[in-house]
Structures are given as structure tokens and as C-alpha cells.
Amino acid sequence: MITICSADDSNFFLGYFMKLADIDESILNAIVAWGGMFLVGRKNELSIKYFNNALELAKKNRSKTSFTKNDYLISLTFFIITMGSQISTGDVQTWYHLFLQFKELLSTYGGLTKFVKDNLHSSEAKLIISNFLYHDVMATQSLNSGTLVDINEYKELFQQRQLLDFDSYILDPLQGCLQEIVLVLGEIVNMRCKLKNMRIGIDTMKSNYLNYIKNNKSTNHASISMLGKIQESKNSYLANVNQIFNDLKIKINNTKPGFSQVRGLTNNKDELELHLTLFELFQIILNIYIKISIKSISFHDEKIQVLIPEIKTRLDILIGTKLQSPLCLIFLIGSIICIKKEDRLAMEERYERLRVNYHVGNMVRVWSVIEEVWRRSDLYYDKLNSKKKNAGDDHDDDVHQDDDEAEEIIDINVFGDESEEETCVDWCDVVDDFGWNICFS
Q: Could you report how far apart the first and last alpha carbons of the chain are, in Å?
């Protein structure tokens, strides 16, 4: 299993998986399939056979009339294994269907909170829920529709109930000390979705207004009223953007590494330093993320560009260690903001080092997204610079438009769209255009 644990004996899930493989055939087949896919490729016929066998056996298990708490633990663990096998080998579709089944099974039980309440003394149950949170927040689908579970339920479980405070020390194999900042990432995901829906509503109002102007050939009382509502909605949107951005910035900067997770590392200063470096890097990346995803600030912004050296320095520390496994999202955001050729080449060199040390398929997918964002960014700014160059000629042409057209332009400008210079390429659009659903776990 791809984790941040420095040794197999500290990987709680690995030991648990092996124990279950002795008693459950679906788990055994799923592990064998994962190993085959990872070593010889996800299209290997024998690996696919074991994977399909695992699915059939797990489906048969879930059809039992009597389903105990232990049966739930086994079935939920099955989804963790099969999702991991798909994500780590570059799948961009099947893993999410498995994740939805994961969620459905938890809902059948009564939901996350009930599952935790009924398994208060089960470390396995706690880490299963932690795993679910991590995949929910790291899925690109969540950026479009929000997390599957309300972020407030996650916060209650992990912040108020301190779900990862174990009686004896256990390192979370996926999140490590990142749990608090992962919750903030979940808030960013949901706030981005909220703002996107607000923007869609405003764009719809604007489209209706333009159609009205076109059909009526001029402005009138009704069109002025429509324009007023558009402006009111936009003011509300911008106020929300600023409030959400400021709130998230404070939360990001106030996050602390999970004490319950780092306390077991105090005797290993080198490993502790790696965990803290990863945490710092996540803070840097999320501060950039809210700039480009909440405020749509250009990659060219000086406050973004000045952070690139800090990102590269910390990546150099982490690449080649066990702490490289959570770097997918970090690497994506840290790379797409690179606008200079030398910075892009530097990130490409780090990608090659990461690819050699970390043979995971979703990182290859991430690199494809990065390259496409670079291509679109270059194309966009080439067109923008060309437009600026020809701005004088365009201005002369505008002077000769008839009065109705001029009046329409005035009304559109009242709407006050942000300048094109303050726009950045949305990497989520690239993922959607590819038809992918990536998980950055």
C-alpha cells in the first residue's frame, strides 16, 4: 500500500490487510490484483481476473441477510484496497464508482457518525473513516459537486471528537499529521463549488439580459431593472469571494500539525522533520490554491511567483522519501503556476525524479494535466498580448458603432467583469475536458 509510513511495521493498514486476507477471499483476491496491476500494468489479464473475482466475492458477501459489524469492517476495507489499486495504477473512472459504493455501504450502516459511535474502540474503524475523508477531499469530482459528506460532519468527527487520538500511537497511513489541513482543503473544495454555482447563476442572468437587449434593440425600464439585479447579484458574489478567501486564509495559516500523529516521531528527528516539511508545503500550496480557485488571481501574480522557490526547496527534501506519496496535489498546483521556462524545466526535472522513485499512475495523469494547463496558459496570454497590441485599432473601430450598439456596450461594462489579466486557467476544466476523475491521494 502506498503510504507515508517509513517502515512496513509502522503501516497499520498493511498489517490489517494481511490479517483479513487470511480469513476473507475477496480481500485476498483484491490484494493479489493490486500487486499484479502495480508490477505489470493495470491491463494485465491475470490481474484483471483477480480483480473481477474480488468484486464478485465482495458482492456476494454484501448480499448476506445477516451483516455484522465485522462484516462491515471487512467490506469497507475491501473498497479501500480496490480503490487504491485503481488510483495507484492511473485509473480515472473506476475508482470513483468504487468510492460511491463505499459511501453507499456507510449510508446503509447509518452514516459515518453512527459507524464511529458503534466502533469507538476500533482503530481499524477510525482509520477507515479517515481514509474515506481523504479520498472525498482529494477527488476532482468534489470540486464540481462538493464533498459526498457534509464538511461539518467531518469537522465534528475529527476536530470535536478527536477521532485520530488513539490510546496507543498509530500513524495515519495516508494523512499523517496533515489531518487538520486536509479538513481545510475540504472547506476550500466546498466553497469553490458554492462560488461556482453563484457565478453560473450570474452568467445566466447576464445571458438573459443580453438576449432581451438583442430582441428589443434598445434599453428600457425592464432592461434597467434586469441590469440592477445582475449588479446586485455580482456585488453579493464578490462580497462572498472576499469573505470566503479571508476566512480560509486565516484557517490555513492557523492550522497545526496533528500532535497525536507527530508525538510518536519525537525520537526520530529526521522523520519528524520530513513530516513537518510536508505540512509546511501543504500550507504554502493551499494559500496559493485559494488565490487561484477562490479569487481567480493570475498565475503571473508576484505574490504567487515568489513562492515557487520555497516549493522547489521543500520538494527536493521530500522526493525520494516515504513522504513523497501525498505530493500529487502539491505537485499539480506548484507546477501549473510556473510561467517561466526555467521554472517549468525545474519542475519537469523534479517530476522525472519523482517518477523514478514513485511508480504511481495518478502522478503520470497529474503531469498530463500540468502540461495541458501550461499549453492553454501560453495560448491565452499570447492572444491577450496580441489583443493589447491591437487595442488602438479596436478603439478606433468602436467609435463608429451606432448608438444602440454603444448603449449596449455601456450596459455590459456596468456589469463590470474582472479584467482578463486577472484570469487563470482552471485545471479542473482540463480534467473535465479529458473526461477524467482524478484522485490525488
A: 12
- Grid look-up 456507510 returns 106
Q: Enter the pTM of the model.
A: 0.89
Alpha-carbon gap, residue 114 to 91, rounded angstroms: 31
How far is the C-alpha of 412 from the C-alpha of 362, rounded, in Å? 43
b or e along 236-273 (b: 16 or more beta carbons within 10 Å of the residue's beta carbon)? eeeeebeebbeebeebbeebebbebbbebbeeeeebbe
Give residue 3's pLDDT: 61
> Kind and range of the H or E element at 293?
helix 269-293
Any idea which residue has 490525488 for its cell? 440
Taking alpha carbons only, the member of 287, 182, 290, 286 closest to residue 242 is 290
**Cα–Cα distance measured from residue 317 to residue 218, given in angstroms and rounded to the nearest whole number:** 62
How far is residue 134's CA from residue 216's CA, in Å, rounded to a whole number? 52
Residue 258 CB partners (closer than 8 Å, separation 6+) = 164, 172, 175, 176, 177, 178, 179, 180
Q: Taking 70 as the threshold, does the pLDDT of residue 412 lie above it?
A: no
Crossing angle (nearest 10°) for helices 45-62 and 69-87: 160
Query: In sequence order, what DSSP letters do the residues of 221-235 get, joined into one string?
Result: HHHHHHHHHHHHHHH
Q: Which helix (H) or strand (E) holds 151?
A: helix 151-155
The closest of 259, 255, 268 to 10, measured between CA atoms, is 268
CB 176 within 8 A of CB 278: yes
Task: Give the residue from 320, 315, 278 showing the smallest Cα distance to 179.
Answer: 278
User: What SS3 string covers 167-198?
Assistant: CCCCCCCCCHHHHHHHHHHHHHHHHHHHHHHH
Long-range contacts of 74-80 (CB under 8 A, 24+ apart): 74/20, 74/24, 74/26, 74/27, 75/105, 76/102, 76/105, 76/106, 76/128, 77/16, 77/17, 77/20, 77/27, 77/124, 77/128, 78/24, 78/26, 78/27, 78/30, 78/54, 79/105, 80/13, 80/128, 80/131
Q: Determine the Cα angle at 339 with ends 358 and 187, to 5°.
A: 65
Half-sphere exposure for 422 (CA within 13 Å, toward CB): 8
Environment class of residue 63 by beta-carbon count within 10 Å: exposed (0-12), middle (13-18) or buried (19+)? exposed
Residues 13, 127 contacting (CB under 8 angstroms): yes
403 with 312: CB under 8 angstroms? no
Give residue 165's pLDDT.
78
Q: Helix, strand or coil for residue 139?
A: strand
d(CA 269, CA 288): 29
**In the prediction, which pLDDT does 416 show?**
40
